[in-house]
Amino acid sequence: MLFSLISAHSLATDTPAIVNADWLHENLGRTDLRIIDVRAPEQFNQGHIEGAVNIYYMRLFDENFNIPRLDQLRQQFSEAGIDASTEVIALDDGSFIWAARLYWLLETLGHPRVSMLNVGHGDWPEGLLPVTTEAKQPEMAEFIPQVDNSRLQTKLGTLLAIDKKPILDGRSSRHYLGQESTATRFGHIPSAQNFPCSQNFETQGEFTRMRDLTALAPVYESLPKDEEIILYCDGGAEAALNYVVMQALGYRVSVYDGSWLEWGNDAALPIHNPSAEQAGE
């Protein structure tokens, strides 16, 4: 169906899901544009794009690395000057997963007018974007969360999807294979395929940047576009980067927010650990 090839993002805004520094340079004067820099406050204070607002990426998680309470998110996004009319541009230090976490979180809360910069802070030609150390306090807005459950997957929903729906693990191959783990158990969710989020970006000289969508399309071409694909990682950030790219390519994707930190610490849930199998355990 044609609709399955058109992302909800593209229906809500003419702005691409991933923009470059030239696009940002040309649009800096827009009154509806809000740049959200999710780097640590000390990094932000050392220099940031003029007019940018800082929301530290750790504030996009609760103490268990899940979505924070809605009242907390409503408060911090309102204080950042975001309302329904605001076009948000997210950027980070070039890790991309933190900007992607903000992107996914805003869309999950019913705000599809969000894009992310295809480079980290400072990874653009010198002088292209104005940089300052002066912080800006935006005018308070009213952000009203309207949760879109189609973008959010649960532990139960992921359990029921095993061997029935595509499940993608966005962690590195060492984590997927069970050689490393941030949880008490090692391995991955049964039937999950490994699509490390690092496939989505590359280093070119001194700059790290997102790969073009035309180059990324073959990475995901074996996956169906007519059914839901569940994404997970360690704590919902790496999966968010896969979400941004895959959604832009026309896939129906949702993020299991609890991810491996929840699944890998729950002994009642099944796992597949290739490393243990190789060791004969």
What does this protein look like?
This protein is an alpha/beta fold. The chain has two domains: 130 residues, 3-Layer(aba) Sandwich (Oxidized Rhodanese, domain 1), CATH 3.40.250.10; 130 residues, Rhodanese-like domain (Oxidized Rhodanese, domain 1, 3-Layer(aba) Sandwich). It is 28% helix and 17% strand. The protein contains eleven helices and 14 strands. The strands form four sheets. A five-stranded parallel β-sheet has the order 1-6-5-2-4. It has a five-stranded parallel β-sheet with strand order 8-14-13-9-10. Strands 3-7 form a two-stranded antiparallel ribbon. The chain is globular, with a radius of gyration of 19 Å. The N terminus is likely disordered.
Layout of secondary structure:
Elements: H1 8-12, E1 18-19, H2 21-27, E2 33-37, H3 41-45, E3 48-49, E4 53-54, H4 70-79, E5 87-91, H5 97-108, E6 114-117, E7 131-132, E8 152-153, H6 155-161, E9 167-169, H7 173-176, E10 193-194, E11 201-204, E12 207-210, H8 213-220, E13 228-232, H9 238-248, E14 252-256, H10 259-263, H11 274-278
Parallel strand pairs: 1-6, 2-4, 2-5, 5-6, 8-14, 9-10, 9-13, 13-14
Antiparallel strand pairs: 3-7, 11-12
Helix pairs in contact: 5-9
Essential attributes:
17% strand; repeat; Sulfurtransferase; 5-stranded parallel beta sheet; thiosulfate-cyanide sulfurtransferase activity; Oxidized Rhodanese, domain 1; alpha/beta; globular; transferase; 281 residues; disordered N terminus; Rhodanese-like_dom_sf
Number of domains: 2
The overall pLDDT, averaged over residues, is 94
User: Strand order, biggest sheet?
Assistant: 1-6-5-2-4
CA gyration radius, whole angstroms: 19 Å
Under CATH, the topology of the largest domain can be stated as Oxidized Rhodanese, domain 1
Shape: globular
Distance between the termini: 46 Å
What's the architecture of the largest domain, going by CATH? 3-Layer(aba) Sandwich
Give the class-level CATH name of the largest domain.
Alpha Beta
The tally of helices reads 11
Q: Which range best describes the helical content: under 10%, 10-25%, 25-40%, 40-55%, 55-70% or over 70%?
A: 25-40%
The secondary structure category is alpha/beta
Main β-sheet, in a few words?
5 strands, parallel
Q: What is the count of β-strands? A: 14
